[in-house]
Amino acid sequence: MSGILEGKVAVVTGAGQGLGRAIAEGLAAEGASVVVNDVGVSLSGESENPSAAEEVVAAIGAAGGSAVASDASVAEPEGAEAIVGAAMERFGRIDLVVNNAGILRDTIFHKMSVADWDAVINVHLRGSFLVSKAAAVHFRAQGGGSFVHMTSTSGLIGNFGQANYMAAKLGIVGLSRGIALDMQRFGVRSNCIAPFAWSRMVSSIPTETEADKVRVEKLKRMTPQKVAPMVAFLGSEAASGVSGQIFAVRNNEVWLMSQSRPVRALHRGEGWTAASLAEQLPTAFGPTLTPLERSADVFSWDPV
């Protein structure tokens, strides 16, 4: 490893297994001291392995790294403060926050309950806000810091049965952009990564058709360890000029994703009526309307 994070302190939420664990271990290997946060719940949010964070801390220590465990909840203000507080108490500073914690409650929209909506929004979006807010005061005081938020192509592009997850993940993009704008004067950066990696967050993908089965087999080749180097880079001084961006990491590919900008315009000097819009808009805008695609429709080729 390059030691690109030597002397830095990172917080990784949802780091007890899968992608979060790979990121925590990767950051530690690059020289960072790591707060490994995980409440030890299942994919849907039920208690499963309360010692998950401790297990990752032990693995990092065995590899010669430095880490401390946190089992506080990202969805509560007190929990977020405790997570960041663990970094300050144990290591005396905080330089990088990786908002990775998340759960899934997939269901078709007309059957989605308020509880399913709230649970996903609270962990993904509210949790990212609360942990970022807790760290922001320290970043401002020390004149620097980096946020890396996990978004998803499900939010950026689309997917079936994930309206709650899509809303949360696209909301995280807005949160990241807002942080980047508000805190750039303090030397603070904020970016998003949409990771392609086989982990429990994608293990729930339906495999009802042969095409879905083929897709899942491809995903299994994309290990979460492939994402960690991008997180380490964004947390390092080498990325000092990179903020407010969205990246995707897929096996050996790194993508810079587009962000919303005007595509086409119509002007009518006397203003518009519903009838005149009906007459002109479909023809003028039709060829450039964004199609209703899933992530798999856009990233439809084999990873390299």
Automatic annotation (TrEMBL):
What family is reported? Belongs to the short-chain dehydrogenases/reductases (SDR) family.
Stretches that traverse the bilayer: none
Recorded hits in SUPFAM superfamilies, A to Z, give: NAD(P)-binding Rossmann-fold domains
Identify the residues that the record assigns to the Ketoreductase domain, covering every copy: 8-201
**PANTHER family cross-referenced by the UniProt entry:** BLL2957 PROTEIN, DEHYDROGENASES, SHORT CHAIN
Q: What Pfam families is this protein classified in?
A: adh_short
Q: InterPro entries recorded for this chain?
A: KR_dom, NAD(P)-bd_dom_sf, Peroxisomal_Beta-Oxidation, SDR_fam
Q: Write down what this protein is called.
A: SDR family oxidoreductase
Q: Which organism's genome codes for this protein?
A: Paralimibaculum aggregatum
